[in-house]
Amino acid sequence: MKLLEQTRQACRTKHYSPRTQSSYVRWIERFLRFHRDAAGKWIHPRDMSAEHVESFLIDLAVRRRVAASTQNQALNALVFLFRDVVKKQVGEFDAVRAKRPVRLPTVLSKDEARRVLAATDPGSMHGLMVRLLYGSGLRLTECCTLRVMDADLDRGQIVVRAGKGDKDRVTMLPTTLRDAITVQVERVDRLHQRDLRADRGWVQVPPSVEHKRPSAARELGWQFLFPSRRCERDQRTGRWQRWHTHPSTLARVVKRAACDARIAKRVTCHTFRHSFATHLLEAGYDIRTVQELLGHKSVQTTMIYAHVMSQPGIGAISPLDAHGSDRGSTL
């Protein structure tokens, strides 16, 4: 079995997400090509040492000047390669690390968020998804991979399954979106019934569910709430299945809506998650509550939103505002 295929198999064994699997394979391939170009021949990881890892990471930081998160992603892939695929100890290494800058998140004001939402069609599937990003604080992938069963209309909540860090959590379902969710479920039901009549209607489910209940892959509850327009054949099973809408499609919708709303800030899907957290804090909600809704492991991660609130907690007044008598003067 080739090395990259062994990597994919090891990722599947550990139930890593397809995105993690793709990322690890891509970084390992870059690592191998880097040393092939340097040595003029392919070198198997079994014949490598800590120096090989160091030289690759240093090249990323010094020559390519990648972001710290990018270098950390490459490091995680190489640790996985040697620990779980090659099963070899390479020892400790000391590489130049890319400096992680401190950045504040981009946050929309309530008026800006309203303008961006107004620039999308509220009756469309993507319009509903954008409103969920802001109204529930979902990550882009979390929104795209929601299942029909994850929207609990009676309890007014959304269940996020296998989110970042492979953790489940519960977040709010805005009351104003319940009717739209109901309509979307009806759309998915009609589409699913049509797929079943065409001997399709399969969907990918977690391996544990597929093993215990093979029929779950054709049940309505496991269908993606925001399905793709077309079915694709699964290379592993040969079944025709319907995937969820691609994240890049929603990203384009948000970018176009921000442009139509004439928002000067850089607006992405994740900007709505930042705005969700900040606006809850501005409304007086406890930071622990916001932490649970976002699914942050540490409250320190959530604390960053306290620095971008419209009225920061430091309570300081600008010296310009303090001189009320000088407001009409020219500086």
Can you walk through the features of this model?
By secondary structure, the protein is mostly helical. It has 2 domains: 3-85, Orthogonal Bundle (DNA polymerase, domain 1); 102-312, Intergrase catalytic core (hpI Integrase, Chain A), CATH 1.10.443. The protein is built from 14 helices and 5 strands. The strands form 2 sheets. It has a 3-stranded antiparallel beta sheet. A hairpin with a 4-residue loop joins strand 1 and strand 2 (157-160). Helix 1 (3-13) runs antiparallel to helix 2 and helix 3 runs antiparallel to helix 4 (68-85). The longest helix is centred in the first third of the chain and has 22 residues, at 18-39. The termini are far apart.
> Could you tell me the radius of gyration in angstroms?
24 Å
Helix tally? 14
CATH topology of the largest domain: hpI Integrase, Chain A
- Helix-strand pattern: HHHHHHHEEEHHEEHHHHH
Distance between the termini: 73 Å
Strand sequence of the main sheet, in spatial order? 1-2-3
Helicity, in percent? 40-55%
Residues in β-strands, percent: 5-15%
Mean pLDDT: 89
E-strand count: 5
Subunit organisation of the chains:
single chain
| CATH class assignment of the largest domain | Mainly Alpha
Give the helices and strands, then pairings.
Layout lengths: L2 H11 L4 H22 L10 H13 L5 H18 L24 H9 L6 H12 L3 H5 L6 E2 L4 E4 L8 E4 L5 H20 L9 H6 L14 E7 L6 E5 L2 H14 L8 H14 L4 H8 L4 H5 L15 H4 L9
Helix pairs in contact: 1-2, 2-4, 3-4, 5-10, 6-11
